[in-house]
């Protein structure tokens, strides 16, 4: 069974027209050709389509025969589901997902299982004992610099909190040197997210040795609509760094404007977290 055939099966089981099923994701004419296997849907659109119609990513991919296309989509869907579970603080769903991956025959399952274990590790409270062996395994996978790629950039970005500012900067510098001129949006987004995390860690550790290099590197990546949030966050941290050295109130006002714009965009909790960063710096 193909992806298009399975989408059609789900759509018909819900009693929906093609327009209703694909509404807001892809055009009806394009989706019609997906069902007929005349067009290939992107991984991003497929995931949006399944979420739009309340179809479990895992259930969908379990029904597909294991082929090259399926392996790509399945791996991506599991990563998306793991990230979603983490941001909803759903530890049980992460643990179930890990069990399913461990019992599956999908390629690179060990790497995927390790990544999910990392998300579970991130959810530990401060009074829980860290899994040092797990963190070391993640470090070995991330810090294999000669083979650093987009997947490793994203993995590194997700688990930077496990490691020191110095070791994180060493890895980030290699990635920046390799990819700062890349035109690929996914690469640019990953680099900006890594830079954002490092700026935050620098402020938290009161260590500003690397901030000039990080801000200069961020400026080399051109602004695109899909990179706006990352650019806003870098501007936020740049103003906090300026305030640290100059103590001019205008820098704090700029930070508050950025925080308010993020709240107005619907990211209320993120805005509150940034206000917490401001409060810690100025107390």
Automatic annotation (TrEMBL):
Parts forming coiled coils: none
GO molecular function: DNA binding
InterPro entries the record matches: Cro/C1-type_HTH, HTH-type_regulator_Rgg, Lambda_DNA-bd_dom_sf, Transcription_activator_Rgg_C
Superkingdom of source: Bacteria
Domain (HTH cro/C1-type) ranges: 7-60
Gene3D superfamilies named among the record's database cross-references: lambda repressor-like DNA-binding domains (1.10.260.40)
Name of the molecule in the record: HTH cro/C1-type domain-containing protein
Source species of the chain: Lactobacillus helveticus CIRM-BIA 104
């Amino acid at each position: 069974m193909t992806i298009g055939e399975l989408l059609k099966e789900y759509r018909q089981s819900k009693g929906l027209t093609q327009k209703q099923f694909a509404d807001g994701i892809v055009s009806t004419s394009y989706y019609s050709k997906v069902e007929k296997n005349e067009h290939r849907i992107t991984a991003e659109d497929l995931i949006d389509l399944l979420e739009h119609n309340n179809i479990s990513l895992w259930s969908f991919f379990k029904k597909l025969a294991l082929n090259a296309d399926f392996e790509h989509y399945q791996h991506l869907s599991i990563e998306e589901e793991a990230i979603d579970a983490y941001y909803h603080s759903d530890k049980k769903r992460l643990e179930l997902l890990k069990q399913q991956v461990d019992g599956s025959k999908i390629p690179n399952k060990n790497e995927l299982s390790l990544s999910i274990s990392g998300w579970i590790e991130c959810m530990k409270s401060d009074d829980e004992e860290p899994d040092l062996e797990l963190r070391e395994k993640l470090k070995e996978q991330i810090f294999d610099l000669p083979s650093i790629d987009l997947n490793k950039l994203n993995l590194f970005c997700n688990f930077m909190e496990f490691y020191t500012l110095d070791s994180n900067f060493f890895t980030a510098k290699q990635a920046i040197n390799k990819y700062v001129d890349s035109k690929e949006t996914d690469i640019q987004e990953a680099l900006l997210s890594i830079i954002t995390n490092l700026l935050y860690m620098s402020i938290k550790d009161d260590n500003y040795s690397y901030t000039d290099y990080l801000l200069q590197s961020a400026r080399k990546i051109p602004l695109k609509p899909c990179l706006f949030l990352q650019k806003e966050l870098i501007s936020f941290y740049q103003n906090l760094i300026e305030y640290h050295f100059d103590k001019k109130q205008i820098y704090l006002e700029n930070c508050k404007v950025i925080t308010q714009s993020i709240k107005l965009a619907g990211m209320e909790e993120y805005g509150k977290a940034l206000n917490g960063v401001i409060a810690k710096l100025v107390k």
